[in-house]
Amino acid sequence: MNTLPKISHLQVFLAIVKNGGFRKAAKLLNVTQPALTHSMNELEKSLGTSLFIRKKQGIHLTKAGKVLDERAQFLIDTYESAINDVKCLSEDEIVQELSLGVSSFSLFSELSSKISDFQIASPEVKIKIVEDDLSILLRMLRAGKLDFIIHPDSEKFINDDLIDEVLFNSKVCILTSIKSPLNNTNSVANLNKIKWFLPKSKVDYYNHISNLHKDAMKSNNPIFLRGGIMSLLMTLNSDFITLAPEFIIKNNTLMHGFHEVKLKEPLPDIIYKIVYSRHFPLKSTAKDLLNELIKKCH
Prior knowledge:
The protein contains ten helices and twelve strands.
């Protein structure tokens, strides 16, 4: 039976790659350079192949080294996730942890109250909520650092490693500042060459409605950014226009200073989905919360 590489060797390998050589990596890890060389010799021996081409100018990765570089962090994250899950099953571990990834706007929906209700009913469960860009949330999900994510369907989740389920639909509103000259707009045709400022989660949605109304919507270079809240702030203090789910306008405090542009032509809904991994079985508590959210949000 072949001996698998040690996790510590993978960590050293990534440190060498990240720092461009053994000397800088040794300094960062606070170990001697010969110790790093010994670790890499053991790693290459266990894999049966060379990972580095050592030159005076520095190190270069072999073909095998490049493959390992692409996957080593995933292996480390998966290992850490498995260890954490096992620790949660320990008799001494009373608190169970759930990690959810969300878009900033989604928590303005009824999701917040549903998650709060679950927390009250299950006080032994510690819920950690991470708000970030979808690409980052997906990377964390695939690494086992998140149990599932809740996000607008701005990406077609057709990958074999992901499962998605529809959570709820939301109508879409177009928002401007109450001081904007666009407040009297009532048709998509009047949105010609306006300045859009949108969350990145709305990129595909914006492209979709642009294609539906390609003769009317000719805005050049719409600005996309990571967070939904920032798009509201920019719209509030400028002549930009943005998209937001309908539940945002039901928040009177948040809507102060905004005007909803009501169009004659209906816009397609945004679909919010729960997405989780095929490769990391859901914890029982994650299944409970997921089923509760699907049941109450439908």
